[in-house]
Amino acid sequence: MSAVRNRAGDAVVHLTIDGTAVEATPGELLIDAAERAGVFLPRFCYHPRLDPVGMCRMCLVEVSGPRGFTLQPACMLSVAEGLEVRTASDKARKAQQGVLEFLLINHPLDCPVCDKGGECPLQDQAFSHGPGESRFTEEKRHWAKPIEIGPRVLLDRERCIQCGRCTRFAAEVAGEAMIDLAFRSDGIEVAPFPGKPFDSYFSGNTIQICPVGALTSPAYRFKSRPWDLEQVETTCTTCAVGCRVVAQSSAGRLVRYLGVDSDPVNQSWLCDKGRYGFEAVHSAHRLTTPTVEKGEVHQPVTWHEALDAAAAALRDARERGGPDAVGILGGARLSNEDAYAWAKLAKSVLGTDSVDAQLDDGLPAAAVLGLPHATIDQAAAASVVVTLTGDLREELPVLFLRLRRAALDGVRIVECSTAATALTPYAAHRLAYLPGEIARLAGALVGATRAHPTGVDDEALAAARTLMHSLDGGGEGLVVVVGRPSLAESGETVAEAAHAIWRAYPNARFLPALRRANVHGALDMGLAPGLLPGRVTLEAGRDALSAAWGELPAKPGRDGRAILQATVDNEISTLILLGCDPLGDCPDRELARAAIEQARFVIFVGTHHTGASALSQVVLPVAGDGERGGTTTNCEGRVSRLAAKVLPPGIAWPAWTVAGELAKRFGASLGFEGVDQISSEIARLAPAYRGVDTALLGHPEHRDGVVVPLAAVPVDIGGRRPRPIDPIATPGILSVEDQGSPLELGAAQPAGAAGDVAPGWPPATAVPLVTFSPPDGAAPADEPAAGAYRLVVRRTLYERGTLVAESPSLAQLVPEPAVFVHPAALKELRVAPGSTVTVRSARDSLQLPIALDDSLPAGVALLVANLVPSEGRGASALVDASRPATDVWLEKV
Amino acid sequence: MTAHFSAENRARAEALVALYPQSRSALVPLCHLAQAQDGWLCAEAMEEIAELCGTTPAEVYGTATFYDMLHTERVGRHVIAICTNIACLLAGAYELVEHAERRLGVRCGQTTEDGEFTLEEAECLAGCDAAPCVQVNHRFVAAGDAASFDALVDELAKGRRRQEVPRHGVLCRIERTVGLPGSEASPRRQARS
Amino acid sequence: MLTSAPRIVTSRLDHEDSYTLERYLATGGYKALHKALRMKPEAVAAEVNRANLLGRGGAGFPAGRKWSMLRAAETTYLVVNGDESEPATFKDHLLIERDPHQIIEGAAIAAYAVGARLAFIFCRGEFALGLERLTAACNEAYEHGALGGRIFGSTFSLDIVVHPGAGAYICGEETALLESLEGKRGFPRIKPPNFPAAIGLYGEPTVVNNVETISALPWIIQNGGDAFAALGAGTSTGTRLFALSGRVARPGWYELEMSKTTFRDLIFDPALGGGIADGGELKAFIPGGVSAPWLGPDSLEIGLDQEAVGRAGSMLGSGSVVVLDQTSCAVRAAWRITRFFWRESCGQCTPCREGGHWLEKILRRIEEGDGRFSDLDLLMDVCDNLAPGVSWPPEQTTICVLGSSIPSSVASALRMFREEFATHIRTEECPFAGAPHEMAGGR
Ligand SMILES: Cc1cc2nc3c(=O)[nH]c(=O)nc-3n(C[C@H](O)[C@H](O)[C@H](O)COP(=O)(O)O)c2cc1C
Ligand code: SF4
Ligand code: FES
User: Fold this and answer.
1) CB A226: neighbour CB atoms within 10 A?
2) Ligand 2: does its nearest atom lie under 6 Å from the Cβ of A153?
3) Is the pLDDT of residue A446 over 60?
4) Mutate to test the pocket of ligand 3, among A44, A61, A100, A726 (most ligand atoms within 8 A of CB)
5) What is the value of ipTM here, to two decimals?
6) Is C203 touching B (CB cutoff 8 A)?
């Protein structure tokens, strides 16, 4: 056998497995060491991402010890120098066969109708390590067939082999033990608390890691047989964490997503939204053909006709108002290649720089791109993490899992948040503040200002400051997670807060926590005013890029909010909406509504019928998740590959094609015929993406993607042992590794020498990357008006967006809207919890039930974004985005 | 959450939690306390115990169901347990069980309709020198033959043995009066100092 | 032969009020603790080492050695194992109900020796009276100054928490006990690495000792380890409390000098077991709790000695002896014991969880007259999958030894009474009167 690999620099212990010398890392578990040496030991309870428990006894092997060879579970035993292991001796085989026979005596023989049949480790290992036939002639154990233990999880107790993977996941990884093993002996069953369903954002993981068909999802149940499945490895584009997944299809339809163990990203877990959101791909509300508004109704037309109509409108707008009369909103759901094509169309063909992938729901683009980035691993290995975000479990669920784990492993978290979040129990300090005060809070935290931020507890602040003082002067080891704590608190103030920390700690790193899947990629590709592809400003990059792109806009254009305002003010006449719906996505609904109403012409480019598509004059259908290749960039700046598994419906096109065809109607050519060509162009022309081409990403070493810019790829953080894939949870995934997941339509590139990226390669470009400095003195918020409550608008995972609404597994999970206040407010208002109150702002009013949250400061009212109480209006109806914070008044109805 | 423990028991519960360096250790004692109060372990009690122990209701349920003495379903006022393990088996325990089932009109594991008696087959109760061994609400009683069993049941039904056989819950008569937290020698303080 | 050895742990049990502080003090109680507190902790441990006090909980590990293996740490815990649930064992029950102060004094001595400041007495939940007496005794001990801060004016402080179990045999196993004490399901922990002496209660080094082991400490400190070691022979020193039950004339508890007394003495001496009940004949006996393999009449001359019983292929275990006579059905006895292990399996390990019930089902079928001759080999092979080789001491395929104890009675019965099994199968009924009761409340 060939030499066993070991990571450079690691100490090595020597053992023999079945007579072969093997090297292993000290502390490594025998089951892992054996697997690396090519000896796969059968197992059920062992999962490389869970604490080993040695319960199922399937991995028993003979191990030398003081009392000769004894049977030991390989999943519990750390390797030791000189250890001798026999995995296939008569005694070991007999023990393994015995365990399998025991497992099978009470296991039902319903494999033909079991979802797991065909990819079942119990079947497989019974075949490879089992006794051949059972001698059990007694009556089997009987239990009622599947019971619903939660809205997305069915449990068939007869099939359960009591391995405890699911319960350990819930307690250890998700941190919410909503299920546990109950009873004892062979009466053990997995159980939620009676009457309390297992309703976790992460429940799907238990189904994936269940080694048998005991846990199944209503979504996949009876949908397919494993041998009918085709699969590709791709990246989840539900949020900006960018978890690695396998997308599986059967008969041309996506049927299941599984999490892949990407060490730097999701470590095999997914949230349920990412796992089941693919259902929206096959929804009946998909746009399948271009339509043009004729009279009052939309009529299906050919692509030619639709594109002609769109081009005519754009030409008309330019003729009347110049290139600045065109505004482009959205793009955060596109692939990098799509976004690049649209940026090129906008800036070099249409000549407008009024382009923004954010709809005022994120942070200033320069802040997102220009603060020094941290990776998730760096955050997880930081000494202090400061969060300036909303509830990460609601927005970036798997990032929440990683940070929760990090906190348990000793990372100290300072949470700046108006209301408690899921991370609060793990935070060393929580600083609750009044919305609008976040910049002042950050200043106080780093000792830059004396001014005391309103709402903040003195003691907590002092304690957090002491913690900050424990950092070295430059702030090495400090990671700031920065997102949008509240949609009613302007992004500028949050960026200013981040900047205050950076000023005080120049070596701090920042992990943007924006939610939309490819918002980082879209901004990186130049879908933002004043920016060009590759994180450079229009000024800095103009000369280098105009050689390839031609003439570029003379001055920076408008951002998302300004585009909407300019539309209201008749300065922009024509809008292109790239997969966004300003009415739902923009924090200030009134502004969005006025803009859409005022616009002369709206072109919608997207995947589903939405409120915005209905209000548009031309609707252009494009490919969505699972239908397109290319790349995407996550919150860390990690570029990873997307793979197409199914075909877009009807005659929908890839979004980049639409951009290319529009360009032709202006006598221009974007210059590419395929996704790979766009990738190459990005790798050539976008400074931060230099060298990130198909060949590099296709290299097996880069399955988890690469962090851009390449020279800044962090060196190994160290300490983490290489983790093998859990073959139980991702059947067949090893072969995907070999086959390489295809870029666009199967065009996987041979890897070449790309794996050997030398440090410092590629050479630094002449064009400096953007850095961030906030505009001076973003106006601080005023004191709240008398009798008013400061509004907080939070996101929830299952909000009423297209993805959730169009996925049957998720659609019913949207929580009921309510306004949350501190209990004291209830007393003041003299209302009982649950009774309806009027929430009124200067803009509008809503009637909502009132609920309690005692983590809120007294003068705060919290609403959840995008939950529509009535008439399509939600929290955004109340928000005035032109102000740093919004005040509301509560009244008894 | 609404409190399920009575004010007095809530105070006892908090004192029990304080006895231990980690609050989850009080889980089993608190379940006993809830049974002393209610006769069984109802959902509301388990939820309050979860809160007191810093764990989840699912974990309280999972833990409680592991133990034979904790009843997550209603049981009779008197739980009669007859040991049938080896020493008692040799002394005719199964004959006694059959008699008991006839006498009470229920099978082992069942409760009489009037809610007075639950009959249980027990594992060895460590009373093997007086086999077959019988307990009522975990108090040893002499009822090893049919006649004394019948006499016992009659007396229990008439409420005559209340003194000897108190309510459910092995903690119902136990009161720790000294060495409590807050006093000179608190285990928590000791353990942490 | 009943030797003249003193009664060490049962000295005051002839008094009605043996459980009160008053009686305890009147019979020399708490003097040993006074004495120990004047000694250095190491000296106390050395005395126990000299006594070679073997653990009385079942495994028989010397208490002194166990204490010396503790990982050095700030916090150390002492846990007294009073979960006594091994079928036919009823000695700790006796000591808890009748001499709780002796346990408290012993615990204080042990805690002093190992540097524990918090001790737990884990008392089986079904011992309601025992729990009451233990708690009352604790209250008395605090008031007497034997517990709490600065015990008897020394610099040593100790708190004791009496912790009730809730009905699960496995919680007698020391690591399951610690899990249970932490408020969890009684799942034994995997050793290595979870040896209590290294990673015990709350992850801290922990000594777990049986109630009887602890109860012997006051005498040892008062009389010296050598005096204890002078009793018995070889490694089996001192006296031990034996629980005798089953088909004997005088079932009960007997404190006897180890090694010098034989099983014949215990079962037949008129002052002890008094012979087989109803003048019957000895068929077999279980020498140390139902986890132990059975022995036959030819083993009667063996002394009550840990090593001697080990050499005979069984164990002295928890010191409980069950006698089967010619009226006892070996199949039924093995079935009932197997049924116990099945129901008491914690359920973690596949072989124990599934194998126990499978064995039970086969045995039951045989006892009810539905057996097959192929069942006999099957029984042995299932045993072999639980304890490879089915020899003694057993090899394990499970986390704790409960799993590998299941074959003890099955294999004993099969080896010693194969013909009796054959009769059941051939005649399709149990040759003894009565058939086992239908599985009560069974799942
Ligand atoms: C299944 C099982 C049950 C046990 N039950 C008890 C018990 O009830 N009481 C006890 O003291 N030891 C019991 N033990 C032994 C304990 O694990 C441990 O060895 C003992 O408490 C140590 O005390 P000692 O050294 O003083 O004997 C049991 C062991 C096993 C494997
Ligand atoms: S349901 Fe599946 S994962 Fe959970 S214990 Fe059973 S077999 Fe294991
Ligand atoms: S015991 Fe090792 S995999 Fe289950």
Assistant:
1) 17
2) no
3) yes
4) A44
5) 0.95
6) no
Tell whether A549 and A651 lie within a shared domain: yes
Q: Of residues A759 and A707, which shows the higher confidence score?
A: A707
**How do strand A531-532 and strand A297-300 relate by DSSP bridges?**
unpaired
Tokens at A812, concatenated = 């019913």
User: A330-344, A717-731, A775-789, C216-230: lowest mean pLDDT where?
Assistant: A717-731
Tens-place pLDDT, residues A503-516: 999 999 999 999 99
Least confident of A95-104, A632-641, A762-771, C1-10: A762-771
CA dist A37 and A3 (Å) reads 8
Q: Which of residues 21-80 of C touch A (CB under 8 A)?
A: none
- For C354, the closest of A73, A95, A186 (CB atoms) is A186
Of A673, A708, A738, at which residue does a domain stop? A738
Residue A747's pLDDT band (cuts 50, 70, 90): very low
Residue indicated by tokens 């009347």: A320
Same domain, A468 and A583: no
**What are the two backbone dihedrals, phi and then psi, of residue A180, each rounded to the nearest 5 degrees?**
-150, 165
Return the CATH fold of B78-157.
Glutaredoxin (3.40.30)
Distance CA(A580)–CA(C64), nearest Å, equals: 75
Asked if C350's CB is within 8 angstroms of A99's CB, the reply is: yes
Q: Domain range spanning residue A28?
A: 13-104
Q: What is the CATH number of domain B7-72?
A: 1.10.10.1590
End-to-end alpha-carbon separation of chain A, Å?
Answer: 78
Q: Do A828 and A848 reside in the same domain of the chain?
A: yes
C402 closest CA partner among C349, C329, C440, C366:
C349
Query: Which residues in chain A have Cβ-Cβ distances shorter than 8 Å to B43?
Result: 193-195
pLDDT (tens digit per residue) in C145-200: 999 999 999 999 999 999 999 999 999 999 999 999 999 999 999 998 999 999 99
Ligand 2 centroid vs B61 CA: distance in angstroms? Answer: 18
Do A566 and A655 belong to one domain?
yes
Domain count of chain A? 4
Question: What's the mean pLDDT when you consider all of chain C?
Answer: 96
Tokens of A713: 């790829």
Report CA(A163)–ligand 2 centroid distance (Å): 5
Contact A275, A259 (CB under 8 A): yes
Q: What number is the average pLDDT over the span A788-805?
A: 92
Token pair recorded at residue A428: 């060393």
- pLDDT at A642 (0 to 100): 95
Q: How far apart are the first and last CA of chain B?
A: 34
0.90 surpassed by pTM: yes
- Contact in structure between C282 and C397 (CB atoms under 8 Å): no
Q: Which token pair is C272?
A: 């002890």
Which atom of ligand 2 is closest in space to residue A206's alpha carbon? 3
Question: Rounded to a whole number, what is the distance in Å from the CA of B152 to chain C's nearest CA?
Answer: 19
Q: What percent of chain C has pLDDT over 70?
A: 98
What are the phi and psi torsion angles at A218 (to 5°)?
-55, -30
- Pocket probe for ligand 1: among C49, C81, C181, the residue whose CB has the most ligand atoms within 8 Å is C81
Residue with the bigger pLDDT between A764 and C434: it is C434
Domains along chain C? Answer: 21-229 (3.40.50.11540), 232-325 (3.10.20.600), 330-427 (1.20.1440.230)
Tens digit of pLDDT for each residue in A211-248?
999 999 999 888 888 888 888 889 999 999 999 999 99
CB contact under 8 A, C243 and B22: no
Among A113, A134, A209, A198, smallest CA distance to A169 is for A209
The Cα–Cα gap between A51 and A54 comes to 10
Mutation target among A46, A53, A55 for the C interface, most CBs of C within 10 A: A55
Chain B residue with Cα closest to C291:
B86
Residue B47, sorted as left (phi over 0), alpha (psi -120 to 50) or beta, turns out to be: alpha
